[in-house]
Amino acid sequence: NYASEFPAKSISVTVTPASAEAKGYSMEVKAENPNVVVGDDAKVSLKITNSDSAVATYNAYYAEVTYDSSLTYKSSNLAADAVDSSKAGTLKITGYGADKTCGKDNIDLLFTTTKVGTPKVAVTSAKVDAKANASEKDAPAATLTTAEATITVGGYKVTLPDAFDGAATVNPGETYTFTAKDISKKYDFTGSTMGG
Predict the structure, then answer these.
(1) Strand partners for 165
(2) Is there a smaller number of Cβ atoms within 10 Å at the N or the C end of the chain?
(3) Model confidence over 36-51: pLDDT tens digits?
(4) What is the pTM of this model?
(5) What is the mean pLDDT of the chain?
(6) Phi then psi for 175, rounded to 5 degrees?
(7) Vertex 170 angle, CA 166 and 173, to 5°
(8) Half-sphere exposure of 47 (CA within 13 A, CB side)
């Protein structure tokens, strides 16, 4: 009978939340140039750090990255065989070798934008470790401090013949005005295209 064990009086309990600080390796996803126009390349960096300031390097890593269909994966700063891009919309990144410096040697991914919008690049899984641990255990999961980056693709590039002046970009639905440098001439303006 709980009533006899706990008489009807208030009980005070102090609740201490667990530390929100990530322990061990962490990965942050960041768009390095988050505002671009259609056709531009967008760079997304995966930055690896460690909560222990004495741990300055990493050398084993694995990450699964997803990206929206309005982006096309172009390249990375890693060896060609480190990124498996065989499945559209997904990258599998693996690496092991020389030490990399935490916070400096980022994994950089380059995507080409194909249409206006706000596409996202996200890390869905990440594991990172140091060479010293490789013989004893598998690389542990890294904490994703920022798991997703958004790229704002806000317009289209405009290429004009040398005889004309106008803005280098235009947004969908806006009026675009360009002018001839020599207005004393008549021009037959043909062959203009959008999207190629």
Answers:
(1) 179
(2) C
(3) 999 999 999 999 999 9
(4) 0.75
(5) 86
(6) -75, 135
(7) 130
(8) 14
